[in-house]
Amino acid sequence: MANSPDHFLDVRNVSTHFHRRQRSQAPVVAVDDVSFSLPGGKPTLLTIVGESGSGKTTLTRNMLGLTPPTSGSVLYQGKDIYHMSSEEWIDYRREVQPVFQDPYATYNPFYRIDRVLEVPIRKFKLAKSKDEARSRMEEALQAVDLRPSDVLGRYPHQLSGGERQRIMLARIYLIRPKLIIADEPLSMIDASLRTVFLNILLDLRDNHGISCIHITHNLATAYYLGGQMMIMCRGRVIERGDMDTIVTKPSHPYTQLLIESVPSPDPELRWERRKQETKNLTEISELKTDVNACVFTGRCPHVMPTCHTNRPQFIPITPVQESACFLYDKAVNPEASKVAPARQASAD
Ligand SMILES: Nc1ncnc2c1ncn2[C@@H]1O[C@H](COP(=O)(O)OP(=O)(O)O)[C@@H](O)[C@H]1O
Ligand SMILES: [Mg+2]
């Protein structure tokens, strides 16, 4: 996931600060120096996992051109998305499609669902005749397991959350973007339909060459997808690499805490509970964000003096996993070579 010119999406040192109402208070650092890339060519699935308030939505908005970062840049095929010509921007808006948390909020309640599919067909000239448009729509709905006769002609409120979210995927299927950026797409969907949705994302990658950045607080559903993973904690990426490796051998103490909190058979419940436990920590962090320290010092069982005064950089742990933790830094910790990532008994 290192940055290089042949990557088609490059997030470079992106930071986003929000001012508080009282200007005397330090700003909220929602995204703190995040860098990563998606490769060109082979379609990729990257899941970004982080608790509520860790900066996921802000980073999503940075990548979609909706919130300019305070510093750093987002490059698409080498072009800064905040400095594109109008033609380049139209291409970007077609090639990079968002899926939001609540599809209802993105629908106009006064228009029938059909319009969600008709507009892109017209805007992007995807069909030459009315009949062709109709068959493209039906094909797209069938691709996401919806029966056209069940949904066409209806209004958004007449569909379930899962159906509305799948209409968004049908729209994506029609537009055939190069990348989907989905921010918590599963939160309005019943648990029973989540795997249907995730399977559609896998199908879009494997059979249609569409990459996906999937953003979630839910490690259990993230694991279903596999692929690449980044763990965010208070605006920073603290561990990244191959999902299977990270989940079975998490190296960062924060990742270890997250994964410990998701035992089967009831992962979601425990995850919610852990979220409650760490809530105070997130709030404290909003009051003092020290750029020259590790974000996890408050809870880390291995904290060392250097963690309070220096910011850890990424260190390779395995060929497919990197961690921003001084525990693995030979220059700081003489025991570094002996520290092994925790092996999760339940996942082996
Ligand atoms: N528009 C905004 N104005 C002020 N603060 C914001 C704004 N958007 C997000 N934040 C703050 O930035 C932090 C990260 O929020 P967000 O990106 O929504 O995280 P997540 O999606 O991971 O829950 C939170 O502390 C949140 O309160
Ligand atoms: Mg969010």
Describe the structure.
The protein has 348 residues and is an alpha/beta fold. The protein is 37% helix and 21% strand. It is built from 13 helices and 12 strands. Strand 9 (228-233) and strand 10 (236-242) form a beta hairpin. Helix 4 (114-123) packs parallel to helix 7. The longest helix is centred in the last third of the chain and has 21 residues, at 267-287. It is elongated. It starts with 6 loop residues before the first strand and ends in a 25-residue tail after the last strand. It binds adenosine-5'-diphosphate and magnesium ion. Adenosine-5'-diphosphate is lined by residues 18, 28, 30, 50, 52-58, 286.
Question: What fraction of residues sit in β-strands?
Answer: 15-25%
Biggest sheet, open or closed, and with what strands and sense? 8 strands, mixed
Rounded to the nearest angstrom, the distance between the terminal CA atoms is 25 Å
Specify the overall morphology.
elongated
Residue share in helix? 25-40%
Order of helices and strands: EEEHEEHEHHHHHEHEHEEHHHHEE
Radius of gyration: 21 Å
Helix-strand blueprint:
Blueprint: E1 7-18, E2 28-39, E3 45-50, H1 56-63, E4 71-76, E5 79-80, H2 86-95, E6 96-99, H3 103-106, H4 114-123, H5 130-143, H6 148-151, H7 161-175, E7 179-183, H8 191-208, E8 211-216, H9 219-225, E9 228-233, E10 236-242, H10 243-248, H11 253-260, H12 267-287, H13 305-309, E11 315-318, E12 321-323
Parallel strand pairs: 3-8, 3-9, 6-7, 7-8
Antiparallel strand pairs: 1-2, 1-4, 4-5, 9-10, 10-12, 11-12
